[in-house]
Design a protein that fits this description.
This protein is α+β, with helices and mostly antiparallel strands. Helices cover 30% and strands 27% of the residues. The chain has one domain: Alpha-Beta Plaits (2-Layer Sandwich), CATH 3.30.70. A four-stranded antiparallel β-sheet has the order 2-3-1-4, covered by helices on one side.
Amino acid sequence: MKVMTLWVKPQSSVDSLPEAEGLLADLIQAFYEYFPEYEGCLGFSQSPRRPRYLFLYMAGPCLGLYPEAARHLEALLRAAFPGAEVRKYGKPWP
């Protein structure tokens, strides 16, 4: 599967994710250091209200993250948001 979006949600409905803009800028930069071919391909948004879900998505003409890159990005998100659930959404990879 080519990953198109990663969704991060808190562990429980009582919890809320922190404001993530600064953290994600550093996380995305770290990702680009390992996978420079994806430079400029990632965008993100975070819901303004609790529980402040986070969406990291492919932007522009990029067609998705290949499995190795998706696993690396998922690991970065799990480390940045311990205890949060990270879900991948994508499309079939031929």
